[in-house]
Amino acid sequence: MVSSPSPSRGWSTGTWSCSRSPGPLPAAPPAVIDRPPSSQPGTERSQRLTRTLDLRQKSIEVIEQNQSPSKGLVACPTFKTYNYCWLRDGTFIAYAMDRVGRHDVAEGFYRWVNDVICARADRVERLIAKARAGEPIGPDEYLHARYNLDGTDGQEDWPNFQLDGYGTWLWGLGEHIRRTGNRRLAVEFRTAVDLTARYLEEFWARPNYDCWEEHGDRVHPSTLACIYGGLRTVGEFAGEVEARGTRNKGGRGAAGSGRSGLSRTADRTADLIKETVLEKGVTNGRLVKSFGSAEVDANLLWVSTPFRLLEPTHPVMVSTVEEIERVLLTAGLHRYREDTYYGGGEWILLTAFLGWYYCETGRVDDAKRLLRWIEAQADEDGLLPEQVPHNLNDPDYYPVWVARWGEIAKPLLWSHAMYLVLAEEVAAAEGGARAEASGPGAPAEADAGAAHRKGKAADG
Length: 460
Known about the structure:
By secondary structure, the chain is mainly α. It has helices at 43-52, 55-65, 87-99, 103-118, 121-132, 164-180, 184-188, 190-203, 221-245, 253-256, 259-280, 315-328, 348-360, 364-376, 397-405, 413-438, 448-459, and strands at residues 85-86, 146-147, 282-283, 286-287, 346-347, 387-388.
């Protein structure tokens, strides 16, 4: 395990990472470890890749091949520290598979999480009871952030009190139900949904580790956005679960008969979360990384995209993205300014989130530029890493992390997933633009991405 005070994962969403600051640097980095490349792949390599490899199909294959028999989704199969399934990473991976029509992969993951949570029902009830009684709760008592692929708890030391993954799972389950029309899952998973929602309602205001597995003594707007998105989803589906649940046998009391109550409490908590973020998470008209901080983090994109705590065009969100672009965007997007995990490079998945936001705000050309950049980061086998060591925040830390954990994680399933999402968003945006330009009398475009976009709008 990392010897640093906060062994974060290097990425977030998934497995990782990162606080990843390993403590004081050695007097000199190991001479046997090369410095990161000083130049990055350019247009020529990108064109070569698109000629020889369908990165979309490769990304689907990478995800399918790394779903375990239990249906958990490993963060990275070749990086020991990431040989686990995170609810956060896994949900975004499953969402990407829903976007490309591989609903079987997504449903398998959601069933895996359902089983993981139901197996810990007694723990959730004990935690809620202790919190309401004012009893202390140790850091190892909370639900974990990552699990072994067989659904058991990992035994290694890890900053496990992270709430973002549980909110993200609720949101992703709702997206899966909307996209597939399989509303029976809302009833089938009602116990796990109820447990997760009540767990989040009880603990959302407590400091816990962020998506980078750092700063467990703070409250983070990005985490609150994940919880907000999940609880809003519960509010939408709870009434239907109640109506259908009364017709099912053997339903638990809390889940079977209290769904309208759950809907109300979920919505009330979501409203309170939004008020809290706007009151404590905004400085100088923009969002901050953590309450009490003035720093910006790329994960703040989640406040609007996809969790909609704020709309993408909300003035606070616009100012936040402008600061993210000013401070963190080079060719790709960095996590935060002081990031030193593998030197603090450009993250594939965060670059895709920024491109997704651009699509939602009409900046399609900017989104396409980021999509091309992501494609250029794939290696000769079409594999995408967690980050690329270009334009590093602190190059001295790159060899330190290579010596500690090996080369940068690759393939990172979350990176492949977010590439798929951005590709779908760009296709949808371009399809909508073509249809609008052709006028009302022109034939409808047969654009799968546009169909996804229209379907989501109709559901919303």
